[in-house]
Amino acid sequence: LCLSCCSVFRFILLTGALSLPAENCSGYRTCGQCLEQPGCGWCTDPSNTGRGQCIEGSYRGPFQTAVPAPSTLPGPTSSPASQPALNISMCPSDTKYNWSFIHCPACQCNGHSQCVNHSVCEKCEELTTGRHCESCISGYYGDPTNGGSCQRESLGMNMGQGLEVRG
């Protein structure tokens, strides 16, 4: 989808003209990936490093899916579909968490640097590099997005073989 199409679609969701069932948003590791998905929002933690969590929700806040209790009435045992309900305690602004549904926060350092001037990663740490501390430094591998880690490459990995290093 093009970006303008996504914006129009999100507007339709915001106005309530279309309602989609909540999907599992928790698998998205960055705010950008999260907000591309209809029905997902980003809860940024208070660390000022860009870390956060992708959660089902709307412009009003995160949703928690309430599963109805099984019916005790006689008859078919099919239960009604679970209903999403607004639950702002999942991203509490009073403890400096921030809910984003349309635009990502300016600070996007993936948990590996503090932001200066609200959007610039001051110094990537924990073996990361890149404008948003989104890559591992040379000689290391991994997925450092959203607080992930980097590990040292072994000699065998560099050569494409399973060599054992002896000292």
TrEMBL record:
It is found in: Membrane. Its main location: membrane. InterPro entries: LE_dom, LMN_ATRN_NET-like_EGF, LZTR1/Attractin, Plexin_repeat, PSI. Pfam families: EGF_LMN_ATRN (PF24973), PSI (PF01437). Residues 1-17 form the signal peptide. Disulfide bonds join C124-C133, C136-C150. Keywords: Disulfide bond, Glycoprotein, Kelch repeat, Laminin EGF-like domain, Membrane, Repeat, Signal. One of its GO terms (cellular component) is Golgi apparatus. It comes from Hucho hucho (huchen). This is Laminin EGF-like domain-containing protein. It comes from the Eukaryota. Residues 107-152 form the Laminin EGF-like domain.
